[in-house]
Amino acid sequence: MDIPGETAHDSRRSEAPPDERAPSGERIGLTPIRAGSLADEVAKQLFATIVAGRIRLGERLSEAAIARELGISRGPIREAQRLLERRGLLVFKPRRGFFVREMTLAQIADLFGLRRVLERYAIEQAVARADDLALRRLALWRERLLAMDTNGEGRAISADTLVEEDIAIHRLICTLSTNASLQAVYEYTLTEMRLALSLINLGFRSPTRIVESHGRLIDALLARDTATAVAEMERHLDHSRMRMMERLSERGAD
Prior knowledge:
This protein has 254 residues and is mainly alpha-helical. The protein has 10 helices and 2 strands.
């Protein structure tokens, strides 16, 4: 996961949010920071925590709680929050602080409508343009993830890493299209995709589960069967969209 190394100070919001009540004591899975660029490291950890669903969409980030869990001052935390705001993961509300961005049912529907168009075209272009050696990268992705569970690594993989592996196979298909414009547009959707995937990350559980959900798609691409690959991609996207919308509806009813 790459977090842009932006460090420019945003003078508009130099004051800490006034509402810093003592937290309930529940940890959200952050790791004390000991070295390196503090703001960048905090941003990476917060990013992983959001994607893993340990901080819910729409939830406020408490600087006091984060500072205590990480064992650092609030300055780097504020800078990290600004970095994530610029990435579109957080929003700032005056006099209240930073919140994880929320998603609506309409936004999820729009995102997956766009993904269907982009990924259908990516499949068509990948089948037409990629040589057999390039397509072999799909099989290598599958073999690598299956090996993680075979040798025991899969049990130690974090939820956010599993989310990134799910994104990786879709990104690879776009790469195999060799269409730079398509890849650029697809990259633009990744923030939205990660937020949406945070709603259902518990469904991944293991690398093998991710492989199983993409297996028929990969087989069709390796066979250069465009029609089957497109059908499998659309089936996969429709299933994910429905699960996300169900989860979002459930949270709205909490």
